[in-house]
Amino acid sequence: MDAIRCEVCGATQSLPSLEPRRRALCFRCKSEVARGPTLSLDAPLALCLAALIFWALANSIPFITLEYGGIIQTNRVFTGVTALWMDHQYFLSVLVGMTSIAIPGLQLSLACGLMLALRRGVSGGRLRPLSRLLAFIAPGSMPGVYLVGAFVAAVKLSQLATLTPGPGLYCFGAFALLWVIGLGSLDLEGVIEDFRPRRSGR
Ligand SMILES: [Zn+2]
Fold it and tell me: Is the dihedral of CA 175, 180, 182, 188 positive or negative?
């Protein structure tokens, strides 16, 4: 509890510490006496940028290596999508490619772009279309499903072949984890409404 004196009527009142986006009004004259802390974008931005880096790495280095009958085959994240396509499972191929790879990457890029724009002082109102697009594509983003699918496939294939996890698998795991924490910690509506960039010299 902090004792705060109203600058308008002089009444002193005790206030609990306020959460972001909360305002406290004077009990006597109803003028604003305190405001919750400004939302910070540092943590969600750092997490989303790290997730984006791991997303790029996971898509460019070997995901898993299969060895059967003296044949060694190195697979990347996209191998599963192309294998489904070659197997004429076009719908499943597009679904896996979109929900596991394309949309999460687009979602993270848009979220990072939006946060960087807010930090540079672009008004929340001008970024509304971007935040609406983010909210629209969010339900189609589920990289965790790919990890579960890969795990199930690995368990089944392990009876036929020797499987060696590649660095891409760990990168994909790190990307999925950072994606959950980074986007989960981003209160999009809150930052659009309330975020104010820190001005130098104040
Ligand atoms: Zn007052």
Answer: positive
From the CA of 193, how far away is ligand 1's center (Å)?
A: 26
As its CATH architecture, domain 42-194 has: Up-down Bundle (1.20)
CA distances from 173 to 94, 178, 182, 186 (A): 21, 9, 14, 20
Q: What is the pLDDT of residue 186?
A: 83
Ligand 1 centroid to residue 14 C-alpha, Å: 13
Span(s) in the chain for CATH 1.20.140: 42-194
CA of 202 to the centre of ligand 1 (A): 26
Element (H, E) at 68: strand 64-68
Compute the distance from residue 4 Cα to the ligand 1 centre, in Å: 10
Cβ atoms of 172 and 146 closer than 8 Å? yes
Q: Report the separation in Å between the CA atom of 11 and the middle of ligand 1, taken as the mean of its atom positions.
A: 5
Give the pLDDT confidence of 77-115 residue by residue, as tens digits: 888 888 889 989 999 889 988 988 899 999 999 999 999
**pLDDT-derived band of residue 25, with 50, 70 and 90 as boundaries?**
very high
Ligand 1 centre to CA of 37 (Å) is: 21
